[in-house]
Design goal:
The complex is a heterodimer of chains A (305) and B (311).
Chain A: H1 2-26, H2 33-37, H3 44-54, H4 60-72, H5 86-121, H6 126-140, H7 143-157, H8 173-199, H9 202-209, H10 214-251, H11 257-266, H12 270-298
Helix pairs in contact in A: 1-12, 5-6, 5-8, 5-10, 5-12, 6-8, 7-8, 7-10, 8-10, 9-10, 10-11, 10-12, 11-12
Chain B: H1 27-37, H2 39-61, E1 80-81, E2 87-88, H3 99-135, H4 137-152, H5 155-166, H6 170-180, H7 182-196, H8 200-207, H9 212-249, H10 260-269, H11 275-303
Antiparallel strand pairs in B: 1-2
Helix pairs in contact in B: 2-3, 2-11, 3-4, 3-6, 3-7, 3-9, 3-11, 4-7, 5-6, 7-9, 8-9, 9-10, 9-11, 10-11
Classes of the chains: A mainly alpha (305), B mainly alpha (311).
């Protein structure tokens, strides 16, 4: 157990290092980050001065070492737009994104688990067909479109829910429902197939033949064993939720990190973009670390050599 | 040989080695047969065929030119008949352009991006996966750590950031989506190669003196490629959704190119009054991706014997 955690922690450090390289070179894709940052009206001299001020005239290795040593302490430099540390802005907005992702994944789980289980039990029934159709539909629908449709129905026509912002408690409903649909779709599919796999095992038949009732067999014997693929996909889906938040937060003007990213990209505020990318990657890496640890609780057979 | 009583040895019948097992004449018949048995697969094929047709011939079959302004017919609801007696089936937008025609023309961008990006990502990912899985060691470590790093940034955010920095045109966008999308293929193919390289046929290929290059591309590749094909089918949908998200956010394809994502971005401005501007283009994306999903599921059932019959 401890060895597993140490091993995964080391892997995480390597991955974070790779992410730092990606984030560092991404803003240099056009050669010089100044060409991204500076408005086209800037003169050669102004650009040169800016380049010097930001240290972009130094050798690449030196730039990267400086970037990494500061990034480790959470210092990504000042936001050009807000004239505040980029990380401060990111942390301010991160809470909103976590709140949204948390509510969405709860809704997603609440829909997906029962539907997936019932579909597996009543395989090829009408309910199963309907569920799998909606699961396909849920993966096929662009989340921003679903969001816009919800706005048309519930804000424009019925005037029930606020269409944007995070000022009222009810404002969470539509963005979280939008994100939850995609998650529920993928999760219900995986729940169904994991349950089907488990239900065909011998120990399920044995459990039934011992005279256990269906509820006990399902929860204690079947679901417990089906959890591994479900937890994997759930972990990945949380990453997907964080990604999806970029689009959905824009649709609903939800003041989270995703929207901050778009705003910063639009004004070429590269320090905030870098800090945001780093945070997204870090949370995703931590989620997957947590998933791996949870595995060992679900399935004691997993030891990770 | 010494005993006279034994019957004469029969002439050895030469084993027929099927040299072209993949091109067996019944291939197409099998394909059609499998399609007939699966209504979902059939629906997928029909949707995709329709979208492909519109993407190729759309410009010819549209009732209106997609950028035909008509300022006297702005924001007209579906079914509106203009002064010349022509019907705007799905209404008009803020410049009086015909939504139905724009939707048809917009399909070509989605199809182009979906297909080309997936080809780039798939080819790159398959090669990287083959190399990583086959050679192992530090090459594998290096490639997989890069993959981990790329995977830990949610795909859409990665693409949004790169597009924001490069402000791409259509071609660049396809490359961005392709060059960031290889990771999934590489992971899957690597796993398959790790399994395959321990199997007897690989040993046999070595035994008859084939080079490593030939072993990888002639023996292992055909045995692992179906996983990539299954993945590619689902990735087309992911790519189409990514492109429309980017265009919607103003970071992808730009006007005057017509895309479904851009139409949705336009529609969003007028969401209070003109619901049809957002509803129909989004429906087009949904139906197209649904077709891809159906086709992908069906392909998986047909190509992957492990899951055959499980659904």
């Amino acid at each position: 157990m401890q060895r597993l955690i140490v091993r995964r922690l080391l892997q995480m450090v390597v991955t974070i290092f790779v992410v730092s390289l990606i984030v560092f070179f991404m803003v240099r894709l056009r050669g010089d980050p100044i060409s991204v940052m500076a408005p086209p009206t800037f003169s050669e001299e102004q650009i040169a001065r800016l380049r010097e001020a930001w240290g972009f005239d130094k050798p690449l290795i030196e730039q990267y070492t400086l970037f990494l040593s500061k990034a480790i302490t959470g210092d990504f430099g000042q936001s050009i737009q807000a004239r505040r540390p980029a990380m401060e802005l990111v942390i301010e907005r991160m809470g909103y994104t976590f709140y949204l992702a948390g509510v969405s994944s709860l809704i997603g789980l609440a829909i997906a688990l029962p539907l997936g289980i019932v579909s597996a039990l009543k395989r090829n029934s009408f309910l199963d067909l309907i569920t799998s159709f909606f699961a396909s539909l849920g993966t096929a629908m662009p989340s921003f479109w679903l969001g816009l449709m919800l706005i048309i129905v519930f804000s424009v026509n019925l005037r029930l829910l606020p269409a944007f912002g995070a000022l009222e408690p009810a404002a969470i409903i539509m963005p979280s429902a939008t994100l939850a649909v995609g998650m529920a779709a993928r999760l219900s599919r995986i729940t169904r197939s994991a349950m089907l796999e488990v239900l065909s095992q011998d120990y399920i038949r044995t459990a039934y033949s011992k005279g256990l009732n269906q509820r006990v067999v399902l929860t204690r014997h079947a679901l417990r064993n089906a959890l591994i693929p479900i937890v994997t996909i759930f972990g990945l889906q949380l990453g997907w939720l964080l990604g999806g938040s970029v689009v959905v937060e824009s649709v609903f003007s939800w003041p989270g990190l995703g929207r901050l990213m778009i705003e910063s990209i639009n004004v070429r505020d590269i320090t905030v973009v870098q800090a945001g990318l780093f945070w997204f990657a870090l949370s995703f890496i931590l989620i997957n670390f947590a998933v791996d640890v949870v595995y060992t609780f679900i399935d004691p057979r997993i030891t990770y050599r | 040989m010494s005993s006279q009583a034994k019957p004469k040895p029969q002439p050895v019948t030469r084993l027929k080695v099927p040299t072209d097992a993949y091109k067996s004449p019944s291939g197409i018949a099998q394909f059609m047969g499998a399609l007939r048995r699966s209504p979902v697969g059939l629906i997928g094929v029909i949707i995709i065929a329709l979208v492909l047709f519109l993407a190729i011939f759309g410009a010819v079959v549209v009732p209106f030119a997609p950028d035909d302004n008509n300022l006297r017919a702005r924001f007209m609801p579906p079914g509106f008949i203009n002064a010349d007696g022509e019907t705007h089936l799905l209404g008009t937008d803020q410049l009086g352009r015909d939504i139905y025609s724009r939707m048809i023309v917009g399909s070509s961008v989605s199809v182009l991006i979906g297909v080309v990006s997936v080809l780039i990502a798939g080819t790159l990912g398959v090669v990287i996966g083959l190399v990583a899985g086959f050679f192992g060691g530090w090459i594998d470590d290096l490639l997989m750590r890069i993959a981990d790093g790329l995977l830990s940034i949610p795909f859409i955010i990665l693409v949004v950031a790169i597009s924001g920095i490069l402000s791409p045109g259509l071609a660049t966008l396809m490359f961005i989506l392709g060059l960031t999308g290889w990771v999934t293929y590489a992971r899957v193919i690597r796993g398959e190669v790790l399994k395959a390289r321990e199997l007897e046929y690989v040993l046999a290929a070595y035994a008859i003196g084939q080079s490593r290059f030939k072993v990888i591309f002639l023996h292992i590749l055909p045995n692992v490629i179906s996983s990539a094909v299954i993945l590619a089918a689902s990735q087309v949908g992911v790519t189409i959704l990514a492109e429309s998200s980017l265009s919607f956010l103003g970071l992808g394809v730009r006007s005057p190119t017509v895309t479904w994502g851009l139409m949705l971005a336009d529609g969003r401005q007028y969401i209070n009054s003109a619901w049809w501007m957002t509803t129909y283009p989004g429906l087009a994306i949904t139906v197209t991706v649904l077709g891809v999903v159906f086709l992908g599921d069906w392909l998986r059932d047909v190509l992957d014997p492990k899951v055959r019959g499980r659904n």
